[in-house]
Amino acid sequence: MQSLVRIRYLAAALSAIASASVLMWVPPVTAEASSPWSYLENYHLGQCLHSWPADLNVTVANCDRGMFERWKVAYAETLNGSREFVIFADGILNGCLHDDSADVSSDGADAVNVAACNPADHSVLWTRIRGDVAWEYRDYHTGLCLTYDSYANAITWRCNSNHAEQWTLTH
């Protein structure tokens, strides 16, 4: 009887391990693989996504092609076959683009900043969807789109498929 209980516990544990969503880092296989660092330029503004290492904020600003405007888009694949993207920030050790859903404004927008690249933290995972003129980046956890507010802060907001939510990768 006791061995039967142990077998059931073992079977349940193995089943839980097999169904867990575990991320594997996989090198990029898309067009940006030929040039590892790119600039994410907002299609509507013509300005680049810019990280600020002092406070880890992310804004949109004129593209000066500096180190803190360089990003590397790579995909992370789960064992269950889901493919999401991680956006690494150049010049910030182990930094990734992060949807800070804890920092929500009164209108429902989430702040976007740079945080440690932790694949178990879904707030650094993004889904990339082709828009009519460029790519939309949607936060994996909230489904909100990467865009900007009236102060040029990077935010995530409800997706409307407009050009303010679309980004081109330039080298």
Word description of this protein:
There is one protein chain. This protein has 171 residues and is mainly beta. It has one domain: Trefoil (Acidic Fibroblast Growth Factor, subunit A), CATH 2.80.10.50. Helices cover 11% and strands 43% of the residues. The protein contains one helix and 13 strands. Strands 1, 2, 5, 6, 9, 10 and 13 form a seven-stranded antiparallel beta sheet that branches. The protein has a four-stranded antiparallel beta sheet with strand order 7-8-12-11, with no helix packed on it. A two-stranded antiparallel ribbon has the order 3-4. A hairpin with a 5-residue loop joins strand 11 and strand 12. About 16% of the residues have low confidence.
Question: How would you briefly describe this protein structure?
Answer:
11% of the residues lie in helices and 43% in strands. It is built from 1 helix and 13 strands, in the order αβββββββββββββ. It has one helix at 2-19, and strands spanning 23-25, 38-42, 48-52, 57-61, 70-78, 83-89, 95-104, 110-116, 126-130, 135-139, 145-148, 154-157, 166-170.
